[in-house]
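Next up, a chain.

===
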Amino acid sequence: MTDETRGMAERADGQAVSLESVLAVLRSIQLDDRTARALATDTAAMALAGVHTLRHHQRTSVLEPVVGAFSRLRNDLRPLARHGDLDIQFVEPPATGRALPGEVAQAGRAIVQSAILVFIDQEETGRVRVEWDCDGLNLLIEIRDDGRGELAVSDDSVASIVERASAVNGTVTVRSTPGWGSILSVRLPLDPPAMREPLMTATALTNREREVLQLVASGARNRAIGRQLAISENTVKFHVSNLLSKVGASSRAELVARAQA
């Protein structure tokens, strides 16, 4: 999924949550018409303000305190939690948690909103608990429902959540117990992955191994490599064996793929 497509999907989920919130307010039997209209107007205005805030955060890669990022999520979902058919419970993160990069905070909110939409579509689900935590290295999200307990990470409805987490190098797991509900766990790293040293310039390789690796990557066979480097074919095999061991590759093809990466 491209960044543009992902952004469109996130905006669509955000708009869907806002519309669900407005509908929940208008359908609520606890509110009279005048109050419902006023609250629906406030909800729409808050959603519009959220769009402007999102644009600002996209332009400025600011850090967000984990408590503040969670509070924004809670505010976004407040009308739906208060007036919708789904009982949404929130477990506050520790106030001492590390500040979140803007992209991670945004991804966390988008993931929860997508999950809420998944649970709304499951009519048997009556309650959802949303919990955030931060272990200093990752934003940890757990979303637990009391539905049928048939949700799986391979479901089409979960695909957008998995893709959103993957976009920031995160992971998603789902544990379901039939008749008891499902637990969706998300781990989003706060730091980008360390850049892997290019294999051709890796300090662990000798000059001769780099020469052999370059020729292997070009498609040359052992005999041709030996002729070009003026060494025996057995010596080429020795170097290739060392390369496989140092790189951790299980085959010549994997070695070539790593070299060309």
Remarks:
- The mean pLDDT is 79.
- The radius of gyration is 26 Å.
- The longest helix spans residues 33-59.
- The chain is about 55% helix and 15% strand.
